[in-house]
Design goal:
Strand order of the largest sheet: 12-15-18-11-19
Number of strands: 19
Number of domains: 2
Distance between the termini: 79 Å
Radius of gyration: 28 Å
Shape: elongated
CATH superfamily of the largest domain: P-loop containing nucleotide triphosphate hydrolases
Oligomer: single chain
Structural class: alpha/beta
Number of helices: 21
Length: 514
């Protein structure tokens, strides 16, 4: 009897392994069996597909034994993305469409009971995976998903509003459409051209922050060298306000960065055309679990650190996060990737984010404040600050105090420098680093670090003396020198002077010295 093979793809991290939807129609007791390690949403496709085919005015083979196999059998499949290929497989196996015309196409789309196509998660990630694999195929997707996938310029993408739009393209000459088919969907098939959307300016501007010169300087250094920042200060001092404007200081994204960040957002179901080429900014609540931060689940989904890939991850009230959630950040901060391993599958997601963290110095928030007296004991302060482990603190390059300004000083402070002006200096410093070593200063390791620091003799002696006196670890010393390298780049200097090291030392202070 009839047999049809339809090409589709599953999602596994940023990879999109191929899936062959095999449909076989045979004589026997009428049934509809779906096999191939399908999740609950995929198994429910049987009812959606049956109703969609019937309501579209097409013939569903009710008198046949229908077997659908999603190959390979050991690859987990989830979501409703296989509805469309299953429906097309049934129509091809029953002779209503020409199976030979489907060979150069791949399909994904969820079907409504009326036959209309609904968007699927991860369309842009699928297109990006095809580009990296250099596969020359044509993707057929629902309109919203096709608009996402079209951001990958090398992939040929078609959109279809309704199941009938797809059927009309592959109709078998001997099987015309039923006369009661709705003609209103005739224009629903079209090729979607690559979109060249321009980045939009950020609504939040650094000039709105009055005072806080040192904190602004720290954010400029962080943006220029891709460093992490921890801001410590009492409530209302402007920590959150500064962090929310950090993304506006970052340089423009390259094509590859924009595509990878958009692909992760597509996997999360959070992609928006308005956010194209805009640096992502993730700000999870302090009740977020470690799985929410780093990703997980079955099948594995990306977490907030992957959504922030290429942008900033803001953790407000840092000590209030669960210890396990904070400790899970240690490896991604070093490697820029997160690997999620489960019993049945393994997925890897990018996580090259800049950590922007904020915290109060004590439980009441006013330890060391000039505005209000603190009511915490030294033991309470020490226990509160000890919620953040030393290894995690060691991985944050800049620690800066954000002091509360008295009201009269705050109101008299002039308007600050705009984000655009700071971003220009940041972009120039980042470009100097890229031309010199091919990557931001934060990523320098080993021999590269020794080759590109270019410390003047006085600066080297000063750094050795400071590291010995302050008891820094080797990682802490290297991170301070990376910050000094960024400060030198902002100053337009090829070598690191003693003044650059001295400024970098200010950002490696211990919390209890506030």
């Amino acid at each position: 009897m009839g047999l049809a093979l339809i090409q589709s793809r599953a999602l596994l991290g940023l990879d999109a392994p191929g899936v062959i939807v095999e449909v076989h129609l045979a004589n026997g007791l009428p049934s509809f069996t779906l096999v191939g390690l399908a999740d609950v949403e995929v198994k429910e496709a049987r009812e959606r597909v049956r109703a969609a085919i019937v309501n579209a005015g097409l013939e569903f083979p009710n008198n046949k034994r229908i077997t659908v196999n999603l190959a390979p059998a050991d690859l987990p499949k989830d979501s409703g993305r296989f509805d469309l290929p299953i429906a097309l497989g049934i129509l091809a196996a029953s002779g209503q469409i020409d199976a030979s015309k489907l060979a150069d196409y791949e399909f994904a789309g969820e079907l409504s009971l009326t036959g209309a196509l609904r968007p699927v998660r991860g369309a842009l990630a699928t297109a990006l995976a095809l580009q990296r694999l250099q596969h020359s195929v044509r993707l057929v997707l629902p309109p919203e998903s096709a608009q996402e996938a079209a951001f990958v310029p090398t992939i040929e993408v078609f959109s279809a509003v309704h199941l009938l739009d797809v059927v009309r393209q592959f109709i078998a000459h001997e099987a015309p459409l039923q006369p009661d088919a709705d003609p209103a969907t005739e224009s629903g098939w079209q090729r979607v051209q690559a979109i060249a959307a321009q980045s939009q300016s950020h609504a939040l501007d650094l000039r709105e922050v009055r005072g806080q010169v040192q904190a602004k300087r720290a954010l400029e250094i962080a943006a220029a060298g891709a460093h992490g920042v921890l801001m410590i200060g009492p409530p209302g001092s402007g920590k959150s306000m500064l962090a929310q404007r950090f993304a506006s200081l970052l340089p423009a994204m390259s094509d590859e960065e924009a595509l990878e960040a958009a692909a992760v957002a597509s996997l999360c179901g959070r992609f928006s055309v308005a956010q194209w080429r805009r640096r992502p900014f993730a700000s999870p609540h302090h009740t977020a679990s470690s799985v929410a931060l780093v990703g997980g689940g079955s099948p594995p989904r990306p977490g907030e650190i992957s959504y922030a890939h290429g942008g900033a991850l803001f953790l407000d009230e840092l000590p209030e996060f669960a210890r396990s959630a904070l400790e899970a950040l240690r490896e991604p901060l070093e490697t820029g990737r997160i690997t999620i391993v489960r019993a049945a599958q393994r997925a890897e997601f990018p996580a090259r984010f800049q950590l922007i963290a904020a915290m109060n110095p004590c439980p009441c928030g006013y330890w060391g404040s000039r505005v209000r007296a603190c009511r915490c004991t030294p033991d309470q302060v020490a226990r509160y600050q000890a919620r953040i482990s030393g290894p995690l603190l060691d991985r944050i390059d800049l620690h800066v105090e954000v002091a509360a300004l008295p009201p009269q000083e705050l109101l008299a402070a002039p308007e600050g420098e705009s984000s655009a002006a700071v971003q220009q200096r940041v972009a120039q410093a980042r470009e100097r680093a890229l031309q010199r070593q091919g990557q931001p200063n934060h990523l320098l390791q080993g021999a590269q670090l020794d080759a590109h620091l270019q410390l003047e003799p006085e600066a080297l002696a000063f750094a050795h003396k400071a590291a010995a006196r302050l008891g820094w670890s080797a990682r802490g010393t290297h991170r301070a020198l990376k910050v000094a390298r960024t400060i030198a780049d902002l100053a337009g200097s090829d070598s690191i002077a003693q003044s650059h090291v001295a400024e970098a030392l200010q950002y490696r202070r211990a919390l209890m010295q506030a």
